[in-house]
Amino acid sequence: MKMNRIKKTSLFTILVFGIIWVLTSSFQMTNELTKEQAIELAEQYIIDNGYTNSPANKNNLNYELLDEDDVDKIIARRKNTLHKKAFCISENENRWDVGFLSTSVDLNKLDSEKRKTDLSGRAVIVMKNRKEIRIAHKEPLFSYFEKL
Fold first, then answer.
1. Taking every pair of C-alpha atoms in the chain, what is the biggest distance, in angstroms?
2. Single pTM value for the model
3. What value, to the nearest 5°, has the Cα angle with vertex 53 and ends 49 and 54?
4. Cα gap 79→44, rounded to integer Å
């Protein structure tokens, strides 16, 4: 009788811990950014920060390492340097790197072979935990990214 109660208690404990693990695991997975969400955030980031031909959001401008203090000069330097649509994406454990081609790259002349090379552009880093989004300082190696 006592042994039966111990087995039931152990089984109940295992079941409770199993349920807790499943619930917390699924919460963590749904709380992380999906690929589509990361792309959407990155596309909005480059628009808001003046890298496209759309107006920049001066009130929420993110500064790069070597940016001067004059917001208008920053926006003028960035203006229309990147295409609005993400070109490629890369994922690691903690972040998404979303690649944008430079406007110097003619999309009409981009064949399947050229798409595989390290074209000129920038990458936006989007942390999966949603706590940070920023532009990468280094020139990305788009040949290693998944093309969209």
1. 81
2. 0.79
3. 60
4. 15
